[in-house]
Amino acid sequence: MASFTHLLLLLFVSFLSSPFVSFAAAQAAKTFIFRVDGGSMPSVFPTHYHWYSSEFAQRSSILHVYHTVFHGFSAVVTPDEADNLRNHPAVLAVFEDRRRELHTTRSPQFLGLQNQKGLWSDSNYGSDVIIGVFDTGIWPERRSFSDLNLGPIPKRWRGVCQSGARFGPRNCNRKIVGARFFAKGQQAAVIGGINKTVEFISPRDADGHGTHTASTAAGRHAFRASMSGYASGIAKGVAPKARIAAYKVCWKDSGCLDSDILAAFDAAVVDGVDVISISIGGGDGITSPYYLDPIAIGSYGAASKGIFVSSSAGNEGPNGMSVTNLAPWVTTVGAGTIDRNFPADAILGDGHRLRGVSLYAGVPLNGKMFPVVYPGKAGMSSASLCMENTLDPRQVRGKIVICDRGSSPRVAKGLVVKKAGGVGMILANGASNGEGLVGDAHLIPACAVGSNEGDRIKAYASTHPNPIASIDFRGTIVGIKPAPVVASFSGRGPNGLNPEILKPDLIAPGVNILAAWSDAVGPTGLPSDPRKTEFNILSGTSMACPHVSGAAALLKSAHPDWSPAAIRSAMMTTTSLVDNSNRSLIDESTGKSATPYDFGSGHLDLGRAMDPGLVYDITNDDYITFLCSIGYGPKTIQVITRTPVRCPTTRKPSPGNLNYPSITAMFPTSRRGPLSKTIVRTATNVGQPEVVYRARIESPRGVTITVKPPRLVFSSAVKRRSYAITVTVDPRIVVLGETGAAFGSVTWFDGGKHVVRSPVVVTQLDPM
C-alpha cells in the first residue's frame, strides 16, 4: 500500500441516465479522476486501494486510465461517494470536469518564410518532426495530407492508427502517422451518448476544425487552393514536411471534456510527438489554478518530457484579462490579421459606400437596390440579433436586414433572415467588437461591417423615409495595409492567475486563414448548408495557434537540442512590433496603438527566429521554484509534477524571477513614494561563441530601468550569463494608461544581426 499513498481526485460532472444512476436514484452520477503517485500502476489498480470496495467497483464505471503525464483513472460515481472521498486524507483535490470549447494559404509568407532559403530550407520544411493536434479529428483524404515524396515514418514513433467509423489503418500514411479518438468522457457526459448521425466514433473529422488546424500547421504545399474562388493561391502549411498525429478530443455540438483531453496528453507523450497543438480553452469564463486545470497538468507532463505545447489565447477579446491557457510552460498565442482581405461594401441609397467583408460566393446582387430594415428599431433585442423565430416575415420579406452581431453564430443569422424571406443581410458589430471584422461563407448575400459603419447604416434605415441598400462583393485583395493588426477577438492580458507572467506570449496569423476542411460539413458548419469545399476560411486564435505549432516544428528540426522553453524564447525575442506600413502595431477594436497586453512580445517573425542569438531557457526545476513562489505547497505541486518536490524553506522565491523571455515588474497599490524591484534573467548564447552583447533600455515615463551588467560577454567556455534588471517607479509621475500598466523594453544587441528584445511591463497591482 505504500506506493499508493497520494491520490488526486478530480471531480468531473457528467449527469447520466441509467445504468450508472441506478444505485442512487435520487442523485445523478458524476465522473471522478483519481490521482495516484509513485510506483508502477497495474491496469486494474483501483482494487488496490483500501477504500476501493467491491461495492464501489460494481456501481462505478472506469472511463480512462492515465499512466504518463498523470497517474490515475477516471470513474463514474455519485456525489455521496465524492463527499466520502473528498474527506479522505489521501485525496489532494476535487473539482468538476469542464466542457472546453474550440477557439474558433498566404500566412506562411506573411511570417517571413521563403522557398529554398531561410528557416524552411534550414529545417527541411520540418521533416520528421511530429505534431500532435488535439482537436476534432482529421479528414485524411485531403491533398494537404498527401505523403507523396515523404521519407519513412520516424522510427521513434510508437503511436497507432485507431480504427472506427469510416476510419482505418489505410487512412494513415507517412504524413498522418497516427490517429486516435477519445470519447469515453463524452459518452458518459451526454445523455444517450454521442450523436452518431452527425459524428464519427473515430478519428474522422465531422466538424472541420481539426482538419483546418492540422493543415495550417503542417499541410503539404505546391498545389492550387481556394475557397469558392476566395484566397486563391498555393496551399501550404507552416511546416509542410512535418508529420501529423491526430488526437480527436472534441466532438461536434458537444465540445471537449477535460477527462478526454488528459487521456490524449497521456497517449501523445508515449506515442512520441515533438509538438502538441491545442486550440482549446475554457468556455465558461472561469480561470482555474494550475493544479485544478487538466490542460495545465497535461501540458506540464508533456513539456517536462521535452515536448513543445502551443495553445490558443481565446476569443474573448478585446476585454482585459480575457487571455486563457496561462501556464508558463505553455506557449499562448493570440491572433493578428494578415495582408489579405475579402471586401464587400454596403451601398446605401443616399450614395454612401461603407466598407465591410464577406466570403459569400453565390449569385451577387449586381448593384440592385432593395429596401433595408433594422428589426431592432422597435427596441426588440432578440429581433435585432436575428435570433431564431424572431423576425416577422411581413417586415423583412424582399428586404436586406440589418442584424446585430452576438448571441448566435454569424452565419446562422443569415439563415434566419433567409427563412423569413429576406434577400440579404448586413451584420453590424457592437461596441465590444469595435471595427474587427471576419469573413463568413454566408448562405445569402451578406457582409459584416464595423461598429461605426453599423451605426451609420442603422441611422439611415431608421430616419430615411424609403431606405434602400445593396451589397458589392469585391473578391480577394492582397497587400492590405496596415497588417498585421491585433484581432479584436484575441484574448488580452493581463494574466488573470499570475500577472508576473505576461500572456499572451505572442500573436500569429488568425484572421481569414485558408486551410483544408472536412467533407462532412459545409463551410458555415450549419446542418442546413449542403455545400462541400476542400478548403475553408476561418478566424480565431484557434487558427493562430497552429501557426506557432508549425513554427516550433521548423525550429525543432533545425535545432533538435533546443528545449521547449528555448524554442519559445527564440520566437518571442525576435518578434516584430511594426506592421507593413512600418508603424507600431495597432488594436483592431480601437484603431489605437496596441500594447504587450494585446500582442505579448509581438508578432511571430520566423525569418529571425531561426537564429535568435540568445535564448532564455527554463528547466523543470525552474518551474517547480515558480510554483513554490506563488504559494503552492509540495503536495499541491505534486498534483502537477507527479513527483514529490521541496520548496525553499529559507527565502521565498519571486515569481517574477522565472527565466521568462518577457519581464513584468509588479508593485503594490498601497505604497507611496519611489518603489524599486530587481528581477534576474539568465541568457544562453546559441549563436557564434565569441560575442559581446550590449543592453539598450526603453523606459516609460515615470519609470527608470537599469541593467547590470550592461554588457554580456560570451565565449566558448562561457555560454550562460545572468543579469539583473532594476525597475524603479515614481508613483507621482508614472502614467499607467487605460490598461493600468506602462510598457518598456530591454534589448540586447551584438552589433550584428542579433537583436534580442524583452518587453517590460510595469504595473501597480496587488498580488492575487
Account of the protein in words:
The structure is a single chain. This protein has 768 residues and is of the alpha/beta class. It has five domains: 30-96, 2-Layer Sandwich (Alpha-Beta Plaits), CATH 3.30.70.80; 100-339 and 484-604, Peptidase S8/S53 domain (Rossmann fold), CATH 3.40.50.200; 343-472, Glucose Oxidase, domain 1 (3-Layer(bba) Sandwich); 619-658, no CATH class; 659-764, Immunoglobulin-like, CATH 2.60.40.2310. 19% of the residues lie in helices and 25% in strands. The strands form nine sheets. A seven-stranded parallel sheet has the order 7-10-6-13-15-16-26, sandwiched between helices. Helix 6 runs parallel beside helix 13. The radius of gyration is 26 Å and the shape is globular. Residues 1-27, 37-59 and 105-114 have low confidence and may be disordered. Belongs to the peptidase S8 family. The active site is at residues 135, 209, 542. InterPro entries: PA_dom_sf, PA_domain, Peptidase_S8/S53_dom, Peptidase_S8/S53_dom_sf, Peptidase_S8_Ser-AS, Peptidase_S8_subtilisin-rel, Peptidases_S8_3, S8pro/Inhibitor_I9. One of its GO terms (molecular function) is serine-type endopeptidase activity. Residues 1-23 form the signal peptide.
